[in-house]
Amino acid sequence: MKKKILVALISVVVLIATGAATLGYFRMHNDEQRIAAGTLTDDPPRIILDKLDDGYLWEIRLLAHFGNASAQAVLGARYQYGLGVSVDAVQMLQNYLEAAEKGNHTAQLMLGRLYDPYQYYEFMTTEITQSTIDSVIKSPSGNILLTSKSGDAKNWYQRSAAQGNVEAMVMLGELLVKETRMADDNITEAAEWFLKAAENENLYGQLRIGEMYVDGYGVNEDVDKGIYWLKKAAEQGIVEAELALGMEYETGHTMVRDIQKAAEWYLLAAQHGNSSAQRNIGKLYANGEGVPRDYVEAYVWLSRAAAQGAPSAAQARDSLESRMTPSQVETAQRNASL
Fold first, then answer.
1. For residue 263, how many other CB atoms are within 10 A of its CB?
2. 34, 99, 242, 261: which could join 73 in a potential S-S bond, CB 3.0 to 4.6 Å?
3. Could you tell me which CATH number the domain at 238-338 has?
4. Cα(2)–Cα(246) distance, rounded to whole angstroms?
5. Do the domains 238-338 and 1-163 match in fold?
6. What does the pLDDT look like over 307-329, one tens digit per residue?
7. Domain 1-163: which CATH number of 1.10.1740, 1.20.120, 1.25.40, 1.10.10
8. Per the record, where are the segments of Polar residues compositional bias (predicted)?
9. Residue 318, Cα to own-chain centre: how many angstroms?
10. Where are the domains of the chain?
């Protein structure tokens, strides 16, 4: 009888350790997918993870102990952000590194962001300070755990992106663009990664490759392709793409000028809070370009842009006020505060 119980217990441990189809196992992979899909605009990246309970914590720790890379990646993120556990830089790094060396693309992405000198401080939690990281830079064996070198970030991003991690593609492209000693092959490689991310429906990748096609930066200039990608991003609410389209249509530098379309895109970006778009649509309303002349609307948008520090917005608003009636100014000031 005792032998049967022992065999049963061993079987349970083996099932869990090997990642058999347990509820916790599925929750763990759901967690990992959410970590890998973190967005550029979140600080820190939004990681919506299931509420941790003692049983689940025990299970993913056991899986991690037996070398399950997904469990190690999930534990690394939890230790980084204090999700169900106390923030622990040592545990964070050890779990990420072990998972990354096994080829886990999520851990590789997260390590890339830790190594990335352009992302490092924004990506860390307030509990994990520079002094904390300094204290765990070396493992007990003397191996380097973490340094803030762009070369290391590039390595991890490349390894993750090569496995199809779209976020890593975008981060790698950004890193290549931001290198201080820019080489043509860096820009070309950045464009290639942005395009791959765009083709995988990443909105930021669509924005960046759209800009590059329009400017002929890293790729041969192709305005049609640039506008195509910018529209893809803008139609899904990327405000930078809305602004870029407005500017392209207004200036007509790379395409036929269309002030009405410029006004449409500026207005969308302005409604989404972009100060430059608010200033630009305000000026169009003031001059009656692309939209009917409306001093009140112009004043409202210029005031909102000025409140956010948009260059020349305050001057344009003050100049406009001299052309308005006292009643119009009163209405505009009231509307601007709404």
1. 21
2. 99
3. 1.25.40.10
4. 76
5. yes
6. 999 999 999 999 999 999 999 99
7. 1.25.40
8. 322-338
9. 37
10. 1-163, 181-236, 238-338
Which residue reads 């765990």 in tokens? 136
Looking at the DSSP bridge assignments, the partners of residue 144 are: 138
Dig out the tokens for 60 from the structure: 């993913």
Cα separation, 163 vs 107, whole angstroms: 12
Query: What's the pTM?
Result: 0.77
Out of 41-45, 80-84, 85-89, 323-327, which region has the weakest mean confidence (pLDDT)?
41-45
Q: Tell me the pLDDT tens digit for each residue of 261-292.
A: 999 999 999 999 999 999 999 999 999 999 99
| Integer angstrom CA distances of residue 153 from 133, 158, 173, 190 | 16, 8, 11, 14
Q: Cα 110 to chain center, whole Å?
A: 13
Residue 46, burial from CB neighbour count under 10 angstroms (0-12, 13-18, 19+): exposed
The whole-number pLDDT of residue 80 equals 81
For tokens 């002094």, name the residue. Answer: 131
Give whole-number Cα distances, 123 to 39, 120, 157, 216, in Å: 12, 5, 15, 31
If you average pLDDT over residues 120-138, what whole number do you get? 51
Asked if residues 157 and 27 have their Cβ atoms less than 8 Å apart, the reply is: no
- Greater confidence (102 vs 26) lies with 102
CA–chain centroid gap for 169, Å, is 11
Judge whether 203 and 233 are in contact, CB under 8 Å. Answer: yes
The pair of three-digit structure tokens given for residue 183, joined into one six-digit string? 């080489």
Whole-angstrom Cα Rg for the chain:
26
